[in-house]
Design goal:
The protein has 15 helices and 23 strands. It has a 10-stranded mixed sheet with strand order 17-16-15-18-19-14-20-21-22-23, with helices on both faces. It is of the alpha/beta class. Helix content is 35%, strand content 27%.
Length: 476
């Protein structure tokens, strides 16, 4: 059967995976490897279940290890109901105990017959590693793989996923690795004692691999996490500031409020920013909180990070519904007198050549403004700019004094710390109330709390969404 370019691939229906690859080759062999607990079964469940549910493609799951009852129960923990698919004739579970080589061959003939009778389009063999051990020689296992699983199922256009147990993609390379159309390796590693999961796309016959590695999570089932996309301003975008949690201020992101409970009143939050990130990346976490203050008629005081202008912040604020009038009314920004900028009325220039005088001017003006607005205020401080202008010691003293005032007046301050001078982070981390690290792994913007400790979270955006808020996804 001749297939066109589009017909060569089927959607994987694995959340996030179809965003980065054209799909799996129709009738092809998909090899998924990893250690126990890496997420192989969860990926296979998503492949079978979503193919049946979303495309009406019948699927068969063959397991060497599990009984049907245990498999169904395990799937329910991910919110997957295979029994409903069974009732509709779209799913079948086959338990295949480990047998001697003759029994295995006969059992596989039975599986192929069921594929043909059912018209199955998706098949999972879990696990091929266990089945290989039932043969006397690797040659016999190769014959079965080539004659039954590869040639026959290709003619039936049944895309087959083989599960293989191994620690790394380069370990225990066998015939199945060479004949597979797609090879995926899953692994779980640690990032400062926190779990982070990595999907490696090793091989994709007939398709290019633009993203050879992706983060993924098993929360609620298997989900690949493509590279975080930049937000695109649209006229239809809307932002409504969430309510403040008890004794705290909203992060501006409901998902994050539920995870960490907001930012405590009077707190200082240290956001440690990886140098690989752009302002668009870390502002996904920073700007929603600032915009929430403005929408609630509260003052925002800013010292922009290096490379960020006040004009940029005004433009970015529009993503969160902060128009020019609100931006000018409720925000004030301090920059050095020599910085190139337009004549915005909410910009106060200070003499950076006299740091002590500049420090006094900023503090006195800040106190004057907070009294004028008579309410809680938000301070966003680009630590790298302060260090560059005043040196580390003066900057540390300035930030500590500002922290005392923020705590006393129950405001909120966020320090945006880039590693221009790594020593400043070591000095600020012990006195910050919260410490959050923002970085990137395989294109995905991630963050995690150092103080208090949290899991790793991924930031996922939808450029076509009507809201600018990212989705906060725990990586578990």
């Amino acid at each position: 059967m001749s297939l066109g370019a589009q017909g060569r691939f089927i959607k994987t229906f694995v959340q996030g995976l179809d965003d980065v690859i054209p799909g799996f080759p129709r009738g092809g062999l998909i090899l998924v490897s990893g250690l126990p607990g890496a997420g192989k079964t969860s990926l296979a469940m998503s492949f079978i279940y979503n193919g049946a549910l979303k495309a009406g493609e019948p699927g068969i799951y063959v397991s060497v290890y599990e009984s049907r009852e245990r498999f169904i129960e395990n799937a329910r923990s991910f919110g997957i109901d295979f029994e409903k698919l069974e009732e509709r004739g779209l799913f079948e579970f086959i338990s295949l105990p480990i047998l001697k080589e003759v029994g295995v061959a006969e059992s596989f003939n039975m599986v192929v017959e069921r594929v043909e009778e059912m018209g199955a389009r998706r098949l999972v063999i879990d696990s091929f590693t266990a089945l290989k051990e039932s043969f006397k020689t690797p040659h016999e296992a190769r014959i079965l793989l080539q004659s039954v699983l590869y040639r026959v199922l290709e003619k039936l256009e049944c895309t087959t996923m083989l599960i293989k147990e191994r620690a790394s993609a380069g370990e225990d390379v066998g015939f199945e690795d060479y004949v597979a159309d797609v090879a995926i390796h899953l692994e779980s590693t640690l990032l400062e004692s926190r779990t982070i999961r990595i999907l490696s796309l090793i091989k994709l016959r007939g398709g290019g691999i633009r993203h050879p590695k992706l983060c993924f999570t098993l929360l609620g089932g298997f989900r690949a996490l493509p590279p975080t996309k930049p937000l695109r301003p649209r006229e239809t975008m809307s932002f409504s500031p969430p309510p403040d949690p008890p004794e705290a201020y909203t992060t501006g992101i409901p998902d994050l409020d539920r995870e960490i409970g907001g930012y405590p009143k009077g707190a200082t939050v240290l956001m440690e920013i990886d140098p690989r990130l752009t302002p668009r990346d870390y502002h996904l976490l920073f700007l929603p909180a600032a915009a929430s203050f403005i929408h609630k008629g509260r003052l925002v005081i800013g010292v922009p990070s290096g490379g960020v202008t006040v004009e940029y912040l005004m433009k970015a604020g529009k993503l969160y519904g902060v128009d020019e009038e609100k931006f000018l009314k409720y925000s004030v920004h301090f920059i050095e007198a020599t910085a190139p900028t337009g004549e915005l009325p909410n910009v106060i220039k200070v003499d950076a050549e006299d740091c002590y005088s500049a420090f006094r001017d900023v503090m006195s003006k800040g106190i004057e403004l907070t009294k004028k607005f008579q309410g809680p205020f938000f301070a966003g401080i680009g630590v790298d700019r302060v260090v560059r202008l005043c040196g580390m010691n003066m900057a540390a003293n300035f930030l500590a004094a500002a922290q005392d005032y923020v705590r006393q007046s129950e405001g909120l301050m966020i320090w945006l710390a880039k590693p221009i001078e790594p020593g400043i982070i070591k000095r600020l981390a012990p006195i910050a109330d919260m410490h959050i690290k923002i970085t990137r792994r395989h294109g995905c913007v991630i963050f995690y709390g150092v103080k208090p400790g949290t899991p790793v979270y991924a930031l996922q955006t939808d450029p076509e969404s009507r809201t600018p808020l990212p989705e906060i996804i725990p990586i578990v």
